[in-house]
Fold this protein.
Amino acid sequence: MVDETTVDRQVAPGWVLGLNRFTDFMVSDFGGGPRPWKFAWVINFQKCGTFFFLGFLMWYYQNFSTAAWVYLAIQGSYGTIWFIKDVAFPDPAWQKKITIGGGIFAFLGVLGWYWVFGWLLISGVSVPEYPLPDGAWYALCISMCMIGSVVMIAADAQKYYTLRYQRGLITDGMHRYIRHPNYLGEMLIYASFALMVWHWLPVLVLTWVWCGLFAVNMIMKEASMSRYPGWKEYKKNSKWLLPGVF
């Protein structure tokens, strides 16, 4: 698991540290006061509520098209998958208590935007003209969502159970060729939602989330991992997100 070679410690750039501190403050401490809930509760509320919210939109707009049903299936089911994952192997990062203002910001500033994706499609604001026939496009989006879910769950499960018994680098399994497979899985999942909606707003939201949150978290994670022996060799033999590419 751990290659006992020279430690090549790296430090996150100043802008990454600053953005990470700002984000952590906004979702954890914003507004001050009591901390009545865990960050995980806010996340799970949005994830578990997605199926019901999208179903309500379909009823409200009387949109029972194939596209609406497919979108309900992929994003609604993903929310349930996330909750099951959180029950089976919860991420310690989501267990911290946060302020009321922090929870509201987390929902309105990030998580709530994912509900807007479904609203765009189901309300008819977005009337997609896909590059491929509808059936082929639905198959592509469903496949991306399914593969992304498996990659994300497998990576998180490996990390959770490995680190319970042994601290250090994880360089095998899902982490053998890429260093952030859980983020790859999440990106495939949300890319499938954006492709189903086929509107500029999800692209803008995901660009912000992936660059402002995911990339920052990955850089911070790499700075943390670099303190372990074997980091230099592991970094040399692996990529960020795509095996052999990037």
User: Anything to note?
Assistant: The chain has a mean pLDDT of 93. The chain has one domain: 14-236.
